[in-house]
Design goal:
The structure holds two protein chains of two kinds. Chain A has two helices and twelve strands, in the order ααββββββββββββ. By secondary structure, chain A is mostly beta strands. Chain A has a five-stranded antiparallel sheet, with no helix packed on it. A three-stranded antiparallel sheet of chain A has the order 2-1-5, with helices on one face. Chain B is α/β, with parallel strands linked by helices. In chain B, a hairpin with a 1-residue loop joins strand 5 and strand 6. Chain B is globular and about 50 Å long. Chain B starts with 5 loop residues before the first strand and ends with a strand. The chains are: A mainly beta, B alpha/beta. At the A-B interface, helix 1, helix 2, strand 6, strand 7 and strand 9 of A face strand 1, helix 1, helix 5 and strand 5 of B. Bound molecules: zinc ion (ZN).
């Protein structure tokens, strides 16, 4: 015997078959909680977010200034060397206009996730965040943006202490050719 | 390298479907039995079993590998579960390959399974946890984000238009019409694809593969066994895989370097110097339309940024110079995560034996490459298969 199976194996069902009780199902809703330690590097990152600043770590060997910060350089496989404050401005590396929420609800006004290359970090070093205070139609790769922070009393030491990044008026740079740091 | 030659001698798969009556274990069994039957072999002739399946969160079952072991033919055998996200389906082939190539076993059964429909209301919610738990999850990302961000970066760097990418959906869904196990074969136009809902610009609904239930399996055998059980063994000529950093926002997403590295690992093993000349069929991973083009470039089958033009020129059509996803791909056949890559390996097996029925690529193809991709947009897994015993 050989060859592509001509018999189709498996039995397709519709969700309605479950709802109508055509087939038996059992259900399970997990109730589990976790408390994640933020660690050395990200702990400091969050502390500085609470202060309204972005901080990076620098590796002396490969000369990369890395954000999000990390205590070891994954390329050189050695400890990183120093903390470096970077700017809360940057350039949109890429973005999307997303009409679906994380739990698959449809959205009338799109969320605008983006990768933002942070000024002061090495070229191509971006973080993921969302854009705000911008007409979705006018978002461009290369657009210059600045973090909009929560008022200090409302900050909790979270990436959401930055509400969003908003355009710096009239500034767009060419689509980067993303030089490699080394 | 003093490795033994390894052949694929059997392949089987279930229908890929939005929701299956069968349990994961039953799906794995159907695919595994199909592969054994196609090789004319029985389980007692199998020495090692490799299984691939995605995170336990999809099923809400802990120790899912163990749960699936009987369905995969793993009872009282050396059994290995492996996992690299969407890359699993081809990665698992490499795991089986080195068990046989090393001389440890003469035969291995590789079974990949996924049942995504269990997770309600939609398995999408289970993907939230792939993002960094501290710096990204609080932003409530969804899986579409990273694909849309990567597609936009690819388009922006090369000046590619959305309609050029929509052609992938048209080609693959059409190819899938010839696949008896396909979930979403369709005759569409570029206009239909662009008229479909914008999920996350630049991604339209018809550029996204479905969620699926299904399983696929192959039997691997060392040279002497292979020649005994079949007169048409398909040889595994090379395998490769490579993992890039999870700091995905620190990489330029326009090009998958890790796919290139994985491809060259496999090509070197296969003695390939000019992939574009020496590969007859490609089955690149296409969970989203642009990914096929992105991966064809990573696989060195198109120059950077040029895959859309080659697609428009018909090069990747089933009767083109380099047919790509003649199976119908994930966009057409379906995307039960781990099983999807193995489906592509099954397709190469059928194509290279001239047994692909209405999907058969003309011209007696002699060599193909299958590739899968996954984790946090960071892993490439590649297998080169051919009719020639190198
Ligand atoms: Zn370094």
């Amino acid at each position: 015997m050989s060859g592509e199976p001509r018999t189709v194996r498996g039995t397709p069902l519709e969700l309605a078959d479950l709802k109508k009780g055509k087939v038996f199902t059992t259900a399970y809703v997990p109730k589990i909680q976790y408390a994640w330690d933020t660690g050395v590097a990200i702990g400091r990152y969050l502390e500085e977010l609470k202060n309204g600043r972005l901080i990076a770590r620098r590796c002396q060997r490969c000369q990369r200034t890395m954000v999000p910060p990390r205590m070891f350089c994954e390329r050189c496989f050695r400890s990183t060397d120093e903390w470096v404050y970077v700017q809360d401005t940057g350039t949109v590396n890429t973005f999307s206009l997303c009409y679906v929420s994380w739990d698959v609800r449809r959205l009338k006004t799109p969320e605008i996730p983006a990768v933002i290359e942070i000024d002061g970090a090495s070229p191509g070093m971006g973080i993921m965040h969302v854009l705000g205070k911008v007409n979705p139609k006018q978002v461009r790769v290369g657009m210059r943006v600045r973090a909009v922070w929560k008022p200090p009393p409302q900050r909790t030491g979270s990436i959401t202490d930055i509400l969003y990044f908003a355009p710096i008026k009239g500034k767009t740079t060419k689509v980067g050719t993303a030089k490699k740091p080394r | 390298m003093s490795m033994r030659r390894v052949a694929v001698v059997g392949a089987g798969m279930t229908k890929f479907m939005r929701r299956a009556l069968e349990t994961p274990k039953e799906l794995a069994w159907l695919a595994a039995k199909g592969a054994l039957d196609s090789a004319g072999m029985t389980l007692d002739q199998i020495q090692g079993v490799v299984h691939g399946t995605a995170p336990d969160a999809f099923d809400g079952l802990h120790m899912k590998g163990e749960y699936l072991s009987e369905g995969s033919g793993g009872w009282k055998k050396p059994y290995l579960r492996c996992y690299v996200g969407g890359g699993t389906g081809v990665y698992a082939i490499a795991q089986g390959w080195f068990q046989v190539a090393s001389g440890l076993f003469d035969t291995a059964l590789v079974v990949c399974e996924e049942k995504m429909s269990t997770c309600l209301p939609h398995p999408q919610a289970a993907f939230l946890t792939i993002f960094d738990n501290i710096t990204e999850q609080p932003l409530k990302p969804n899986l579409l984000w990273i694909f849309a961000l990567e597609q936009n970066r690819y388009m922006a760097r090369h000046g590619i238009r959305v309609e050029e990418i929509a052609r992938v959906s048209v080609k693959n869904k059409r190819n899938a019409l010839g696949h008896p196990s396909a979930q979403l074969g369709a005759e569409l136009t570029v206009k239909d694809v662009l008229a479909s809902e914008i999920m996350a610009w630049p991604v339209h609904r018809l550029m996204v593969s479905p969620t699926s239930d299904g399983a696929a399996a192959v039997v691997l055998a060392a040279e002497d066994v292979a020649k005994r059980v079949t007169d048409k063994p398909v040889w595994i000529q090379g395998v490769g895989w490579c993992l890039d950093t999870t700091y995905w926002t620190n990489r330029d997403l326009y090009y998958p370097e890790y796919v290139e590295k994985a491809a060259w690992m496999a090509y070197h093993m296969a003695g390939i110097r000019e992939p574009r000349q020496e590969i007859n069929i490609a089955e690149p991973y296409d969970p989203f339309a642009y990914k096929e083009l992105h991966h064809l470039e990573g696989l060195q089958l198109a120059p950077k940024g040029k895959a859309p033009q080659l697609l428009a020129d018909g090069v990747f059509d089933r009767d083109g110079d380099l047919p790509s996803s003649p199976s119908g791909g994930l966009l057409g056949v379906g995307n039960p995560i781990a099983a999807a890559g193995t489906m592509k390996v099954c397709e190469l097996f059928w194509q290279l034996r001239g047994e692909a029925g209405p999907r058969q690529v003309p011209g007696k193809p002699r060599r193909g490459v299958a590739q899968a991709w996954g984790d946090l947009m960071q892993v490439g897994t590649v297998v080169v298969m051919g009719t020639a015993q190198l």
